[in-house]
Amino acid sequence: MLKDIIIAIQAYFQAHRFIKKHKLWKWIIIPGILYSILFVFGMYYFMHTSSQFIEWLSLKTGLKNWLDTLSNSFLGFIFTMGSLLLWLILLLFYFSLFKYLFLIIGSPLFAYLSEKTEAIIEGNDIPFNFKQLLKDIIRGIKLSVRNSLWQTVYTLSILLLSLIPILGWLTPVLAILIECYYYGFSMLDYSMERHKKSPAESIYYVSSHKGLAIGNGLVFYLLHFLPIIGWVLAPAYAVVAATLSMYPLKQSEK
Fold it and tell me: Can you give the pLDDT at residue 117?
């Protein structure tokens, strides 16, 4: 799996050179700006609601009042750390829902960009096919809904685990790995669809190459630490990188 993670990370550097060489910037900038606007508004809304939810939960359960009566600094520290971890997991969960919404909206463009990338590699032209485009949109929506449901199940389980003192401190790492895997899965599936793989075959293939999905999603999230530039580049770079990382594997299978 480590080898696949390294391949997926290196694919982002290859994607940057590929985009520059073939002048694909219009396919990068336009969806990137839309994504950035939605991301800023989404995070602004989250910041205003998450803290209120955690405070409501602590008051509703009586935990905050109980800690106030004990006046124990160690327990107060544990409670503070638990609240922070809960906030981080809620952030990942919210971002996950936002991500799937954007994947559904951008599915036609991402499918086309993935197809265009492989066509350039093979030196082929891409005839516009509305029927195929419609199939890509429907498949992308179905896969996004499927992945969001499974990820919600895992995230809720992690959310419960985060309430356990000390042990819960590991939960953000698990949540991030799951988040990276499912995002990378969505990016890799565009190539699977193009090679006429069924959703079941796609699930099996990506499960056998988890590192490609995790590595792709990991760099996607790391790009968010670069304000504005990273937000603009992250979505489309992930698509191109996923296509480049999948292509050698598909060729070797042939």
Answer: 87
